[in-house]
Design goal:
Oligomer: single chain
Mean pLDDT: 90
Number of strands: 0
Radius of gyration: 35 Å
CATH class: Mainly Alpha
Structural class: mainly alpha
Strand content: under 5%
Shape: rod-shaped
Number of helices: 2
Order of helices and strands: HH
């Protein structure tokens, strides 16, 4: 009779441990999926940033080409004071446009940097939450293990009597 009772208690304890482990595994899988989603978002943000940097490099090259063209135009326009005035006005307009493009590029770079920083912060918070949950679940498992060990010890002592 006692052996049968011990077997039942042991089976119930094993089922309880199986349930706890299954619950923890399920939670870990959910957190892993959330982490993967954050990584995908980070990659997407990095690709967007890289595209913006490529556009900025292209704009800088275009500006360099424009400066070269302006220099050539100014040299040929030195023959005429009126042509030189027109070239000066054109240079001022292009410089303002360049400044606007640089300001826009800087704004885009800052926005992308802020987005990446926010994504990394979210990712770090998610990892902290996951780690806290894992520690909490481990503590619960340790407590359950100790209770089971005590119960087994008591059962062994009761069986030895």
């Amino acid at each position: 009779m006692k052996k049968h009772l011990f077997t039942i208690i042991n089976a119930v304890g094993c089922l309880l441990l199986l349930g706890i482990v299954s619950l923890q595994w399920g939670q870990n899988e959910l957190q892993r999926q959330a982490f993967r989603n954050l990584q995908k978002e980070l990659r997407s943000t990095e690709e967007t940033r890289d595209e913006a940097l490529d556009r900025a490099a292209s704009l800088s090259a275009d500006l360099a080409d424009l400066k070269t063209a302006l220099t050539i135009a100014q040299k040929s326009a030195e023959d005429s004071a009126l042509a030189q005035k027109a070239q000066s006005d054109q240079l001022a307009a292009l410089t303002a446009e360049r400044d606007q493009l640089i300001a826009r590029r800087d704004t885009q770079n800052q926005e992308l940097t802020d987005q990446v920083t926010a994504q990394v912060t979210e990712w770090q918070e998610a990892i902290k939450k996951r780690d806290a949950t894992i520690k909490e679940q481990n503590a619960l498992l340790d407590a359950q293990r100790l209770k089971l060990n005590e119960a087994i010890t008591k059962l062994k002592q009761a069986g030895a009597r």
